[in-house]
Amino acid sequence: MLFCCCYFRLEEIEKQLQEDIEREDNASDGENGGNASGDDLSEENRAFIKRYSVVTYVIPDKHPGEDLFDLSAAGKIFTQHNLDLRNFHFIPQNRVEYLLLNSSVTQQVFLVVNGVLSSAYRDTLCSIPILKWLFQMMSIHLDHCVSTKILERLMELTLKNSSISDEQFKPWIPSIADISAVFVNMGIGFRSLFPLQHLQPPFNEDDIFLEKQLRNHFPIDFQCLFVKLLMNIRDWDTKVPELCLAVSELSSDHHNLLWLVQLMPSWIARGREVRRRLSLVIIGKFLHKKHVEIPDDSDKQMSLLHHFLVCMKPSYLLKKMREMRKGQEHTDDEVHAELEHEVYYLIYVLLHLVSEASFLDVVNSSQRQHLLKLCRALDKHVKGDIREDARMFYRSKVRCKTWFFCFGLVLGWFLVFVMHVVPSSQPWKFWEFLMGLGVFFSCFFCLHQVFAWG
């Protein structure tokens, strides 16, 4: 009976609301047509709309991208029309080089693309000024096909040089200044290339005088470049903290930094180490614990990660963010909703980083305990602090992410346990095995319920 009364009452309010809107539409003329949006609704109707309205805040799946390249500033150092090989100050040694020096810029590019330049260096070394010119022309030419052809010629001449010369020959590679000149010429700010004050190059922008947001994944060539760069870093234990600190300062957006973490190659040991350490650095940065030193020991890293998880409680972060903005008014419901969305968006990204930081190559008994502690902390401090609301889908998205993360941790722990502990015939571990099995199926059941409700 009570349900029927509530149902008919809702129908009555909805009908009255519809009549008010229609009456406003009929009374409005062309100049006051905008008043039909419900400005003169009764307090009862306003309360009804406020109670059942859906919050439009969402957590995006794709990072927003960083504005690095200013296309309006592209070509301020050189363009495909004024990048003349004759300005590179080299002495011609054969007929083809003499032909290049007597040709215009357009004719020079034509000779390169059609293979005339390659024919001149079958038995002799190509001079470095020509290679540098090819590198710069490749970076600025507007025709993609022409740029690709120039890159092919550059690689071909480099390989020929290495095959002709002796074993002590080092192929030409662009210097930091050459690469910086190309990036600045594409429109990137010089300070964006070197964000850390203590890691500045010995030159400035005066010395060297695309896709805008870089939101898509890098091609395989860039992945191979990352691998080569990581594998050729000397004194790795000393340089990796500096590398992680430098990368963490490349952006102020947490989602963009997560994307940088995921760009690191996961199929080599150094790449996985960078992903773990860099994730911890970024988590500390956005939890305002930037001065926390990241330990080298994996057990201490997991302990630090557990400490970070305790600080990721939504209500705690919301309180902290309010304190940081205490000079502003937060009585408005819209401002409060926007602030809460920022907190849940941050937690969503931090959970991805926690997943990266908790990935271990080898899991021993001590680290298995750390993984279980992470699951408990996640359940208590993050998932347990989320109050789901049908109007605020971003809360459910973060809660679902915690389930997936717990499931992944327990699944990994369970598989390692089955492969290493059970075959080793340690009967005193049997109860630990049963406990892990119970947690595993508990997470599986909860995930099933999440999908069933969705």
From TrEMBL:
GO terms for cellular component: nucleus; site of double-strand break. Keywords: Membrane, Transmembrane, Transmembrane helix. Belongs to the FAM178 family. It comes from the Eukaryota. This is SMC5-SMC6 complex localization factor 2. The chain crosses the membrane at residues 402-421, 433-453. Residues 9-208, 209-291 form the Coiled-coil SMC6 And NSE5 INteracting (CANIN) domain.
